[in-house]
Specification:
The longest helix is centred in the C-terminal third of the chain and has 23 residues. The strands form two sheets. The chain has a six-stranded mixed sheet, covered by helices on one side. Strands 7, 8, 9, 10, 11 and 12 form a six-stranded parallel sheet that branches. The protein is of the alpha/beta class and 273 residues long. Keywords: Signal. InterPro entries: Flavoprotein-like_sf, FMN_Rdtase-like_dom, NAD(P)H-dep_reductase. GO terms for molecular function: FMN binding; NAD(P)H dehydrogenase (quinone) activity. Its EC number is 1.6.5.2.
């Protein structure tokens, strides 16, 4: 199946994909229009395609359809995980862990980083109608089966970026309700553990289902006995943390599969074949 590059308002990744909406040929201005009645179309072998978001006057449903209904490895599918960082700096440990997670090769799962830098501070009174940036963010999360939260601990709690993202998503309950989630945190002593427990409390109202194990706390203490785990650009350089991150995502995949496919096991779903 053709490789596709889906870039949807900050939700991006290279994958085996089926896209609903409009597709542009790479290096060409030719437009492929897919029939509305044929939800899933397959590109010819070897054809590289790129999703294009249209901004013409469409209905809300049509606009979201143009984002592309990302189904990886159709017809068997993959678990799509949205990676939400708790800080906006690209050099932050939070962003670095999301990048590291996106590079991992895990059978039956793909992680797509989500851009939270354009989200305004929530104030429902000032935004009776959802801002365009928030609508795009919600559309991205709707495409996902699960969420990976990556954030440091701020004053024994979550960061304002994390809370702001969840509060916006809660304005449209179906974006989070029933989704599975996992957390990886950073902190100087407990590795951000207190943030994780507070985030689990916050997730009760929007009906998020967090995995219980493994718990991954990344200590950012640096001294003679503890070398740095991230480089100057915020990229993960610690193989032990990378292995823990892989185990976390495998656990998230296995927890999500029965919810997505009923009571089927990983083997029965065919997702790993």
């Amino acid at each position: 199946m053709a490789l596709a590059m889906a870039t949807m308002a900050g939700f991006c990744g290279t994958c085996h994909a089926v896209l609903e909406g409009s597709l542009h040929l790479s290096g060409s201005s030719s437009l492929l229009s897919m029939p509305k009645t044929n939800r899933f179309a397959f590109a010819e072998p070897g054809l590289r395609v790129r999703a294009q978001q249209q901004t013409s006057a469409e209905t809300e449903t049509g606009r979201r359809a143009m984002l592309g209904f990302l189904l990886l490895g159709w017809p068997q599918g993959k678990i799509i995980v949205a990676g939400i960082p708790g800080l906006i700096s690209e050099k932050s440990d939070s962003q670095g862990l999301i990048r590291a997670a996106a590079k991992l090769r895990i059978s039956g799962l793909v992680l797509l980083p989500v851009d939270v830098t354009k989200l305004p501070l929530i104030n429902v009174e000032d935004h009776p109608n959802l801002p365009t940036e928030v609508q795009a963010f919600m559309d991205q999360i709707l495409l996902a089966d699960a969420i990976l939260f990556s954030a440091p601990e701020y004053n024994y709690s979550v960061t304002p970026i994390t809370k702001n993202a969840i509060d916006w998503l809660s304005q449209r309950p179906e974006t989070l309700a029933g989704k599975t989630a996992a957390i990886i945190s950073t902190g100087w002593d407990f590795g951000g553990g207190r943030m994780q427990y507070h985030l689990r409390q916050i997730g009760v109202r929007p009906d998020l289902h967090f995995i219980n194990t493994p718990e991954v706390f990344v200590s950012t203490t640096v001294d003679a006995q503890h070398p740095p785990k991230f480089d100057a650009n915020g990229d993960l350089i610690d193989d032990n943390v990378r292995a823990q991150l892989q185990q976390l995502l495998v656990s998230l995949r296995d927890f999500t599969l029965p919810l997505k496919y009923g009571n089927k096991t990983v083997k029965d779903s065919g997702i790993l074949t």
